[in-house]
Design goal:
single chain; alpha/beta; four-stranded parallel sheet
């Protein structure tokens, strides 16, 4: 357990305590089960983009409850590799982040982070395999440094399982000067 700048006591989960993720804080709106799981699968894999607003209702409540007192300079969605994004037709994290940014009046900067390596799906991987899979898969381009340096970035994705993807994204943003990286997802597996 540790105290934050606001005096709130935060408990780390076992894996985070052992591995120290690169993000400063991560929060999820719901558990990845039941109706939430079904809706997220439809949204992500069945082109059900009309579900975005309902999912952002959850994200917005989570952001206000957990990050309402935090300075957030910009929102960055977790990027997909270009081939995967073309195949799917959209990046679900960009849709979620764009709507969340509009509602919270925070700029969304999807190009401050890129996925530089195509990685296999992680759905059937254990924690160690996931970490290895995404290791070095993201970078924050030097030409975007003016947009990251000294900033507090809110990283947005649909689901957090082990936190490996979010941690790698945070590491890339911090390597390019981000001061803090907070993460938010619709659900936690």
């Amino acid at each position: 357990m540790e105290s934050t700048s606001t005096g709130t006591v935060v408990a780390e989960c076992g894996p985070c305590h052992r591995r120290h993720p690169k993000y400063d804080l991560a929060r999820s709106a719901a558990e990845f089960k039941g109706p939430v799981r079904e809706v997220l699968h439809k949204f992500k894999y069945n082109n059900a983009t009309w579900l975005c607003r309902d999912l952002v209702d959850l994200l917005e409540g989570c952001a206000i409850a957990h990050y309402g007192n935090e300075r957030i300079d910009c929102i960055c969605p977790v990027p997909l590799y270009p081939v995967k994004e073309r195949s799917r037709g959209y990046n679900q994290a960009v849709l979620l982040g764009s709507e969340l940014g509009r509602r919270l009046k925070i700029p969304i900067l999807p190009d401050i982070l890129v996925r530089c390596r195509n990685t296999p799906t992680q759905t059937r991987m254990n924690a160690d395999e996931r970490r290895e899979n995404v290791s070095g898969a993201f970078l924050s381009p030097l030409k975007r440094r003016p947009w990251t340096y000294g900033r507090n970035v809110l990283l947005v994705d649909d689901v957090m399982t082990t936190g490996s993807t979010l941690s790698e994204c945070a590491a890339a943003l911090k390597a390019n000067g981000a001061e803090r990286v907070l993460a938010i997802t619709v659900a936690r597996d």
